[in-house]
Amino acid sequence: MSRELLTPEQDAYLREIAFGKYNEDIAILINKKFDSAFTGRQIKEYKNRYKIRSGLQHKGARKPKTLLTPEQDAYLRSVNLGHLSSEVADMVNKKFGLNIITASQVQGYRKRNKLPSCGLTGQFQKGTKSWSAGKKFPGRGSCTSFHKGNMPHNTLPIGTRIKREDGYTYEKIAEPNIWKQVSYLIWEAANGKMPENSVIVFADQNRDNFDLDNLILVSRSELCVANKKRLLHNDANLTKSGILVARIIAKTSSLKHKKQKKR
């Protein structure tokens, strides 16, 4: 393994946190801090090469690899109810600047940790009898029930903007309760409908800067490359240059894959 696996800054951080931690946990912490994708095996080989010790004695089976850090686990549990696995994966990735958590991993994580899939459905199960079945309530219902066309008093009007826990600002665009990221709306107003499997990246990483020049359209494959290669920066010009590099890498990979399929 070459010494270039870690930058000097990453090497210094590893040495700072190594003591008392397993290689898988060290990899997770480094990946979170530097938006990288190191594995526990790579960290182990690097530590052995440069005699970096954690001070742990392994007895019996090795500690199982964990998908999430304690902080990420707590966040997942806070947003778990009422969301699909794909939605939870997207929220965790956005919250912690990752692009590696998938819907299937969230589904498996829920199952292993006995977390409810999507919360209560609000539906009666087959064979369940309502407490009010067969009962009549004279003079009641008409004054307290919602009628067709009526809206709850706390319904937010179309055009309302809110900032959610994922750090992005959303705008209500239709009823009932249809929302869309403001960055998407601004980009589409200037350029037309966004292509499928594409997202908007903030050039300066400031999710409150909606200047059109700060909004960059990228494909999900390009975003994956940009995250993996650490090409996104707080400097807008550096990010724009990084996106160009990511596009070349993603395109080259796509062409290579197509050639292999033809063989």
**What is the C-level CATH assignment of the largest domain?**
Alpha Beta
Number of helices: 9
Shape: globular
Pattern of helices and strands:
HHHHHHEEEHEEHH
Biggest sheet statistics: 3 strands, antiparallel
Strand content: 5-15%
Distance between the termini: 33 Å
In CATH, the architecture of the largest domain is Alpha-Beta Complex
Class derived from helix and strand content:
mainly alpha
* Helix proportion range: 40-55%
Given as residue ranges, the uncertain stretches (5+ residues, pLDDT < 50) are none
Radius of gyration from CA coordinates = 24 Å
User: Overall pLDDT, averaged?
Assistant: 83
The spatial strand order of the largest sheet comes to 1-2-3
Number of strands: 5
Total separate domains: 3
CATH topology of the largest domain: Homing Intron 3 (I-Ppo) Encoded Endonuclease, Chain A
Domain HNH nuclease: 181-222
InterPro entries: His-Me_finger_sf, HNH_nuc
Organism: bioreactor metagenome
Protein name: HNH nuclease domain-containing protein
